[in-house]
Input
Amino acid sequence: MTLSDHLPVLLVLTPLLGAPIVSLFRSISRPLATLLAAATAAIAWGLVQQTADGSELNYHLGGWAPPIGIEYEISMAAAWTVAVVSTLAFFSILAGCHNAAREVTEGREHLYYAAFLLCLAGLLGMATTGDAFNVFVFLEISSLSTYTLVAMGKGRRSFTAAFNYLILGTIGGTFILLGIGLAFQATGSLNIDDIAARIQDLRGSRTVLVAFGFLATGLSIKLAVFPLHQWLPGAYAESPTAVGAFLAGTATKVIYFQLIRVCVMLFGASYVFEELHFGTLLRWLSVFGMFVGSLAAVYQTSLKRLLAFSSIGQVGYLTLALSLGSELGVRAGLLHLAAHGITKCALFLVTGAIVATTGSDRLSRLAGFGKRRPLIAFAFVVGGIGLIGVPGTAGFVSKWALLRAAFESGHTIIAVLSLASSMIAVVYVWRVVEVMYLKPSVETDSADGSRPWALMVPASILLAVSIGAGLYSAPATAYASRAASTLWNRVPVAAGLPEPRPVHHDDAHDAAAEHGAHESAAPEGQAGPEEGSTP
Amino acid sequence: MSDGMLILACMITPLVGALLVGLTGKRPNVREAMTGLASLTTLGFVLALFPKVMAGERPSIKLFEMLPGVPLAFEVEPLGMVYALVAASLWPLTSSYAAGYLRGHHEKNQTRFFICFALAIFAALAIAFSANLGTLFFFYEVLTLSTYPLVTHAQNREARRAGRVYLGILMSTSVCFLLAAVSWTYFKAGTLDFRDGGILAGRVEETALPWLLGLFAYGAGKAALMPLHRWLPNAMVAPTPVSALLHAVAVVKAGVFTILKVVVYVFGLDLLTRTGASEWLMAVSAFTIITGSLIAFTQDNLKARLAYSTIAQLAYIVLGAALATPDAVLGGALHIVTHAVGKITLFFCAGAIIVFAHETNISRMDGLGRKMPWTYGAFLIGSVSIIGLPPTGGAWSKWMLALGAAEDHAFYIAVLMISSLLNIGYLIPVAARGFFFKPGAHLHAKPTPLSVRIPLVTTAVLCVVLFFSSSFVIDLVGPIVGRP
Amino acid sequence: MTQAAHLWHYWLIIVLGMLGLWVVIAKRHYVKKLLGLSIFQVSVIMFYVSMGKVEGGTAPVYLPGEDGGVDLTAAYSNPLPHVLMLTAIVVGVATTALGLALVVRIREAYGTSEEDEIAAADRAEEDELHRQELAEEAL
Output
């Protein structure tokens, strides 16, 4: 086995083990963290390359075969997600050097970077693991470190923002745990493929229904699906700049991927969309979210909050894509995941640069900013155009994909509504542009001495990527089509365990619970390392 | 130079021009020379394409795929050629005029003005040459964004408000309706290419056709079809050369051009005449023609009056597209040319009056014609062309439109006639008061510089020239509507 | 015995969970919210633990068999959910610790840990900023 065979686990291990190391070496914590993030991103892109032909990488941790052992499952979609997440993480960490010292208490930078890497490890682990309980563990790793990171923001409001996020996040996490538990009870397995294969015979079971309910609700809280979005604006707006950029680009995206997995892989699309009609519910929530989030963004007086509320609207687009319940919908979702992640991350970084030069992110302080700092202001305009989804930006590519999916599944009204809501995006972006370019300057800047270019360099690269992908979208769309197709047409195969005992329908709930218990207890004696490999 | 390179050269020259203007911004004379150079070079390239298209060729070039199945591609077909000719030939004149105007008016940010101007021309040419709806949509948005700084040039509260209305209506209609129409078309027809005879026949249910046409007609908000016309009078706060560009050359014509092109190459004339999907659009454009003219009557501000006149005149072209008969489409295409030349003359004159006589309201311009004979003479000729009387080009386009309506929809001939009467009512008094009324004591007219006088006289002469030589448009566009 | 009564432990878990959730939502004091959160988490932990229990089953340590080997026929409880809960307990502890640490910082910064008072303080701050901006606008 060569090193490249171990990429799936190295992807998670690099930041996970890197975090304590970074916290030990205080003096070089920043370069070390940047290096580790770069290595992680490189590994993620390596995975993209390995899966580009549509194959799926199954990595058995320690050589233990599933369902007893823990499996890492890198589908194309997962590789896509981790590539986006780790790349944005790298750029956010890179940008963090602009003023980590000022935003984070002096002498605590190493802890900041350690928490950052832990958060990254959690997100990547969540996206790649094939074990349901592992999803919960990684979720909590990323969540706990996120609460810490949010609380490191300037000003006392970051504490309350972090606390609110902690409360809602933990409720969400616990719901997910409950959902996993019920799924385990019904099927007797924790391996996602295994559960998926067995769940097809248990469709009538109320346990399965409730498991789906808890998982969907928990994930919706973490994803900030309207009306469960209250934690998001505070968490994004009050956290340190680089953290805000990182969270805005990645956190909800990984959860979104989990929601796709739960709906499409775990419970099966036909169950979720045709039997439960989950799509209808999610669709209208998404539409409401799009309008409410965007409208709220229009009325914000500070830039970061404006962007945060716009994220709630954008989450609406993501869930809308999924709610269409089709392969094209998943494809649109994957594209929007990347497009919005890149754009929003860049916009938060640009906002950071604005704060670094003006000392505030209040809209009123931006009067005449276009004249004082033409480059930064222009970068914001480019990002804003990407957010609206004007042709020539990545945002347009994903919007087009969403429209295509909506038309294809016959939801013309939904397509028009989603377009109408992007009109609101025009309004909130242009409010900022107007202030920056057309209002006369009222005062001079009070720069806080940090380095705006450190934020602008990564932001410009991300914006260039967004424009580049908008003008020449073939590689991305082709990859996303293939990823969606493999994900959608995947037939889960149960691992080699005894078939579950037949279940009586009237007694499904209890019986499922019992057989689950037996199932997992039985193989205790026989399970062993996979043949031919040593743990 | 190959055809493809020639097309690219047409579009890249304004871009290079914008760059050079930016680089030489510190020295106004060099900067203006750059604009002039770029505009004349562009005109040269466009003229080089003209004989090829006249000979029935369709020069084209495909760059790369923007979206799967939607390449960024250009193809010069007759309608696009007409629009490109208008834009490219009026640009040098407008640049010369703008140089004189901005200096006379002591405007700030002149460099930004010329850069955005060149960008707008670039976008207009790209729209003209688009080979598919995707490319057209892309550059349509570029045009909106590049003209926004021009509209808000003054940077005061009023300009901000106008900019908001401008961007709000144009951007939201295009993002909402036009994009919906484009995507609907793509997912039904499987392509976005402009093809002779249309791409929709048999692909979209006939009951849905009026809706799709509506999305296109209102999605192209630049066509200022009522009730989405408000951005146009609002954009009047812009400097007059911008108004000229907006209302005669690039922006509004991009809207009606889109509608014409969609009718001819996406729907196909047969489909529309057979199904009657455009009946409602005829009624709406007739309403816009009459109402726009009536509102123009009530405006005392000269530029505002011209703006409402533009709204009415644009609806002529939409009417031509909606009638969807060969003559009507020819009339629409011809009207793009004649209205552009006529209206730009009127705006040049209005701007000259604002800068050199400091008057904006018609009621205060009595007798001004004696002090500014060139300007007023040109204004009179422009007015005659807009009204549609011989010996100006406007006569032919109205004639063709009336012919197009005669077949099945003779009612609209009456609309055209009433509108002409209204045009006389609100345009001729301006010139008449200037020449025949007694000058007020407050009138102080400085002499107009040559850089302003030459363009406005040239365009006035063009109005007359078009009366005798407008057949080239008929020859050019005829084949695509089955009139060789 | 009816099925509902037979599943009495689920009722206990549901009551406990709802109680915890209610405390989180209804109580305005931050420490109380954390208490509620812990109760809610504990209910889920108990759910997992009860899930592993097999009726008549014994602890999952193999009983000696008749022929000197192990007895595979005996009913054993499933140890897996129990083991999983070790992790969940750790997560719960970490969450509570982090939450309490945040409450300490909030109390230092605001002088209170009542949600309403904190919200009022934030609002006052926002209003003040807004007033300043309006004053500047007027200038």
About this structure: Chain C touches chain A through 52 residues (CB under 8 Å).
